[in-house]
Design a protein that fits this description.
Blueprint: H1 5-31, H2 38-65, H3 73-103
Helix pairs in contact: 1-2, 2-3
Transmembrane segments: 6-24, 36-58
Keywords: Membrane, Transmembrane, Transmembrane helix
Length: 104
């Protein structure tokens, strides 16, 4: 469960590192005057899914560690769906990133 704050902190740090490397990749392509290919689009889509996964982790961390006394049953059921959605986003993000590097 994403109730531990260390999970959100660690994922945020990894998202920052991934963002830096993604930026360096595009700066390098611009500096060397190389074209952006379809694998770059796949890497950007993978990064976007990773950021979506991070947003869900932070949302789960805040909702579990916050005051839930006023949480309605709709919010509780939506919160219980975030775990599987987060897992799906993470797995698809990893698969897309690996596919981009293998196929390029």
């Amino acid at each position: 469960m994403a109730s531990e704050p260390w999970l959100a902190i660690t994922t945020s740090v990894l998202a920052g590192v991934a963002s830096i490397f993604l930026g360096l990749r595009f700066i390098g392509k611009w500096w060397l005057q190389r074209r952006v290919w379809w694998d770059d689009g796949l890497i950007v889509a993978s990064w976007a899914l990773f950021i979506g996964c991070l947003a869900l982790i932070i949302r789960l961390t805040v909702s579990v560690n916050g005051d839930n006394s006023t949480e309605s049953w709709i919010e509780a059921s939506a919160s219980s769906l975030m775990g599987p959605i987060r897992t799906t986003l993470a797995v698809v993000s990893i698969a897309w990133a690996k596919s981009a590097f293998v196929l390029s």
